Amino acid sequence: MKAVGFLMLPAGWFLVLAAIVLFASPPLRAAFVLAGVAVEVLGLILAFRSHLIPREEKG
Amino acid sequence: MPVLRLPEVTTAACLFFIFLVPFAGAGLALMNVGLGRSRSAGHMMMASLCALAVAGLAYFVCGFAWQGSIGSPGHVLILLGRSWNWIAEEPFFFRKLSFDGSAASLTALFQIFCVGLAALIPLGSGADRWRLRASCLSTALLAAWTYPLFAHWVWGGGWLAQLGVNYGIGRGFLDVGGAGSIQVMGGLTALAVTWILGPRRGKYSADGMAPAIPGHNSVLVLFGCVLALVGWVGLNSAGAILFTGGVPSGAALIGINTILAASASALTAAFITKVRFGKPDASLTANGWVGGLVASSASCAFVSPAEAVVIGSIAGTLVTFSIEWLELRMEVDDPSGSVSVHAVGGIWGLLALGVFGQFQRPVLNIAGDTLPGGMNGIITSQWLAQLIGVATLLGFVLPLTYGANRLLNRFYAFRVSVEGERQGMDLHELGAGAYPEFVTHTDEFLPR
Q: What's the ipTM?
């Protein structure tokens, strides 16, 4: 889960970069940038969840 | 490329503001000390001093070479006919930098303080368990590579700053006083360090409870807030002059916006904690204050005082709830709240510029070019430029800093031993406590 989370962060960023380079239309570009940010947020959630401490290690 | 020079008066004002910046570092260091345990207080101050020293030297050796300044040469990538300036091409050791009042020399001076400030942020998150040498190594990495790279993209005429010129996206990514380049950079590094170190022993129990480990000196924390304000006024004012073409007379608005954002943020945090817990919480209020300062950094030159109050109030709310959410739900043990204050507050500040920013004057942004003034950030798609900057911080800077620090941790363990943590960092790593007089000696009670 940790690896997936950390891979999704740059994946979202590449979507953002692709949107800047490939789309000239402002609404399309904005939509793809938002999609990239959404992927990053999902990656961040996974990264946070993968760092939760297992119950047996607490205390 | 001709050397960019500022008028004499602007140079003098800029120097004055730059020399205020170390107060921000002093404030953050005091806050980190106060929010940690008494048995690690001396170690934290020592780590802060070492971080400033290492950051300054690493930046001198190669940091500035990769960051550069507006108008300096850079490595350019051509993508579909548009240039992407991704790293500067300056020589190491400040060679070729003329110290004659050029904008580049002022930038170098300003940045050497800024990189130190960014390096202080993760220290608070690793309090009570981060070894001194490991924190120095991590700081060197930050100052020599991560910070200069992103700062070049924003402040050195890099591709984020060029978004407006190359792609018509607002005025490009704008960050007047370093909400992204300094604060979010430091906050995300703090998050990476916290993840790598893990929580302090006894912080999370098997029954799901997370007992509070309160800071040992709220006076230091609150005094740190006052010092930080002085530094932040300098930080925001100098940044506005160097990176957006501001004039010294604009410092009045910047100073007012900075203190209003901090005040609104601190009072919001105090109000929220009073309503929720019955009494205002000093450490959360202090964190709210700094969160407001952080949020003000991005937009202080481009918003009205009323908008600064709104930005500060939202920052105070975000910081207060974020600290609780990270600590209790995400099990991120961050004694100083650095992740929430600097990363969350900074991201909000960057986005707020896109929402509230009013560009009544032209903005200096890349290679000495100015982009025209007029219109609100929403209308000019400035919000999109800001969002792209935030996406770069989350999608590039966080994985980079996490991966690099994790690799470093494999070669030199970040975390102190169990015995060292029990003993306290002062005794274990420095051999002496910060408060030796606090120790009760039995012979003091013997009859003389």
A: 0.97
